[in-house]
Input
Amino acid sequence: MAHPDYYKILGVPRSASPEDIKKAYKKLARKHHPDLNQGDAASESRFKDISVANEVLSDPEKRRNYDQHGDPAGPQSQPMPEGFSGFDIGDLFGSFMGGQGSPRRRGPERGEDLQRLVRISFQDAFKGTRLSFNVHRTETCLTCHGNGEGPGEKTTCRACNGKGQVERGSGFFRQKEPCEACGGAGKKGPACPTCQGRGRNPKQDTITVNIPQGIEEGQKLRLAAKGEAGRRGGGPGDLFLQIEVEKDPRFERRGANLYLTLPVSYTEAALGAKVDVPTPEGSSTIKVPPGTQSGAKLRLKEKGMPLPKSTHRGDLFAEVKVVTPTVQDERSKELLRELGELNDQHLRDQAWGQP
Ligand SMILES: [Zn+2]
Ligand SMILES: [Zn+2]
Output
């Protein structure tokens, strides 16, 4: 009887620690519990699958059997299929290629890549930073050097009855694959006592990484060889850090350039002024020329974010927003009226011509 992929059901890697399994089970069981999903047949069957997967993977003995033989009950309970075995693609290719049906060996397998989200502040993205964090990964077992075998005499592999191959799939698409339990050799030693035959062990690793200045939201950093350990001599996978940068509410970032809105008073816009604007490293003075209109874009060169692999920086653009005064007192109103008479600019005539 073929057993389903219990790791997949719980959504955990094969290297998952007992705590990881417990956590994953609790989360899924809560979600699919029949009390919460009454009458939902799909949830009910999922809940059953989750429970069975947990029963196997949380029991060290059953898990070991399952990992090694594909059966939680151990190798004895797995009778070899007899009689008609369906259409065998492996044999077809074997004879087509002129092969002698010798078992293919499972070669080295590279470890899985790991992904991790890393959130940094706007300031850290500006200056660059050094981060340390913990990662749960696996490491090649030092006792058995990754082949999963302990000291002792090699015996016929019970998962494949010494054939070095197992059949996968069903009916028409039945296919032979190298046996995972013995790596296709047909013989194997007793399970390594350190890793229970898995060839790798869980490891809590502290990773330190330099985040370059100017890094942007959504960028990925690859840390070579910091993923899961490989199998049968394969190299480790990589660790990918996906970068999230917190926003600074004062700036809008586009690439290395920064944009901000600069409120300017009516008087400052008319007469010109020097005003302070924020930049990523404190404030800087910007000159508002006399007669500046709303929407004008003033540029502070090289006051934006650092450009990658460069000593240059992007620019900071300040978009002027002229704020109309809201006057209440008579004196101000009088002055403004007087000002209006002195500077009758015929604004709409200028815009549209005489109607
Ligand atoms: Zn080992
Ligand atoms: Zn085998």
About this structure: Confidence is low (pLDDT under 50) at residues 77-103. The two ends are 91 Å apart (CA to CA). Residues 157, 159-160, 164, 179, 181-182, 186 surround zinc ion (ligand 2) (CB under 6 Å). The longest strand covers residues 129-140.
